[in-house]
């Protein structure tokens, strides 16, 4: 299946990890209304937040969070039907073969593939080699 991927270069994202015992922090709740992209996932093991780097406050004296900055997103143009299979695998496998790490997020309508800023150009080449179209967002 050939896909159209929107490259959202204008907003570098951060992936933040907090202990699962934490509540959703007020800084991200206030950012939800003003940011184009925020993902909050809580599991028994962790609380993960993906948001613009600019939304993450400077590290406080607390050492209970980990921050990975410098992620750029590719949005699969959707909406995607729930009956479709292999979308993420079809995108992730060729990237993995080139040594490109990803952070994947799925929503009700579509999938997002995040790659580090330093690998964006190589990811674009990989996707285009696979026959996918890239549009700038």
CATH homology superfamily name: VC0802-like
Give me the number of helical elements: 3
Using the 3D structure, state the CATH architecture.
2-Layer Sandwich
Let me know the largest β-sheet: 7 strands, mixed
- Approximately what portion of the residues adopt beta-strand conformation? 35-45%
Task: Provide the CATH topology.
Answer: VC0802-like
Count of extended strands: 7
3D structure, described in words:
The mean pLDDT is 92. This protein has a single domain, classed as VC0802-like (2-Layer Sandwich). By secondary structure, the chain is an alpha+beta fold. The protein is built from 3 helices and 7 strands. Strands 1, 2, 3, 4, 5, 6 and 7 form a 7-stranded mixed beta sheet that branches. The chain is globular, with a radius of gyration of 16 Å.
């Amino acid at each position: 299946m050939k896909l159209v991927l929107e490259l959202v270069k204008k907003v570098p994202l951060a992936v933040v990890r907090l202990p699962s015992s934490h509540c959703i922090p007020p800084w991200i709740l206030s950012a939800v209304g003003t940011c184009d992209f925020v993902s909050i996932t809580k599991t028994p093991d962790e609380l993960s937040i993906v948001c613009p780097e600019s939304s993450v406050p400077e590290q406080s004296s607390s050492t209970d969070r980990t921050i990975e900055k410098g992620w750029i997103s590719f949005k699969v143009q959707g909406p995607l039907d729930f009956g479709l299979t292999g979308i993420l695998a079809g995108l992730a496998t060729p990237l993995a073969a080139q040594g490109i790490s990803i952070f994947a997020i799925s929503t009700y309508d579509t999938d997002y593939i995040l790659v580090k800023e330093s690998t964006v150009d190589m990811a674009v080449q990989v996707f285009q080699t696979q026959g996918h179209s890239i549009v700038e967002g």
